[in-house]
Amino acid sequence: MAFVLRGGRTWDGTGEEAREGDLAVDGRIAALDGGSGENIDISGCTVVPGLIEAHAHLCFNGATDWRQVYDADSPTTMALRMAGNGRAMLEAGITTVRDLGAPTAVSIDVRDAFANGLAAGPDLLVAGAPVTTTGGHCHFMGGEADGELEVRRAVRDRVKAGCDWIKIMATGGNMTRGTNTLAAQFTVPELRACIEEAHRLRKRVAAHCHGTAGIRVAVEAGVDMLEHCSFTGEGRIDFDPAIVDQIAAKGIAVSPTVSIGWRRWADDGLRKARADALKAMFAKDCKVIMSTDCGIPGVPHTALGAALDVLAEYTGISRAHALRLATSRAAELLDLPDRGVIAVGKRADLLVVEGDPLADLLSLERVRLVVKDGEVVFRR
Ligand SMILES: [Zn+2]
After folding, report:
1. Residue 228 CA to ligand 1 centre (angstroms)
2. 294 C-alpha to center of ligand 1: Å?
């Protein structure tokens, strides 16, 4: 149904400022200066493009008992949990989500249920079960593969099943006991086999990596996107500017998983070191996309706006710059040219919030209205 958002301001996803104008929606974005249809008064509010979360886990509950809950879930319960988390994200104005780890079949069913209206949720891109080594990070999701042949087969399996992205665990992770977060899990030839096979099938590869040694291997292999990229060393951040030079030169995207969890770290030095690594990437014009890793303990699915506030505060980038990383820049880096900006003809994914997010990013949490693909899906 056609409608016009009247009396508010619009930030189109690209510049530094919002402008006045009545935004008309008729399936797609129809006009930026008025039109016909139901009038919706949004005085005192700002319209921004629907937010994009580039790294989520809908199957996790965001709490410290996540593993017991995960292990106890039947596939049906997990699907319901994912649907519930997806709905909460949609109502927070997060209209596109890339899920980077859940069992493959459930991920695809939930994505399709959101797409065909069986359940309310964001537009979902899924990786299914991350490709990992035997006993490696998140092996319990069902993605173990060792050696080039098994890695190739794992990629083929996921594409056959209908996954949108390939996720590979280039290092261990803190959430999986018995893995090594610092060391590379796969060799360069194994990662190259993954990338080659994914690219042949027109998919891209996101590599989870924390340890600097693992980041080095992932960059050498030439993955498309680095997840976390935290430069973790033994008891400290082990930042290597030469790797950032290569990330920039190769055009590899970085999804740094910044979250409100940063505020709870007792160690100021850690926060500063992580922020400094990100600043170095901004300085080299690396392709950074916003992501939070929501679903892991302490990171709620709906806290993307609050995470943007953390990002801007600790790296010193402007609020508009931070917001671009979750809208226009995110759409560009995820190959979604139909969204991320508010322009005539674009997909109408919109978040209407009270106040001005360019003055206070936390106003992103004061949701008035959410539009997904031309439909008002939430209204407060
Ligand atoms: Zn993750």
Report:
1. 8
2. 8
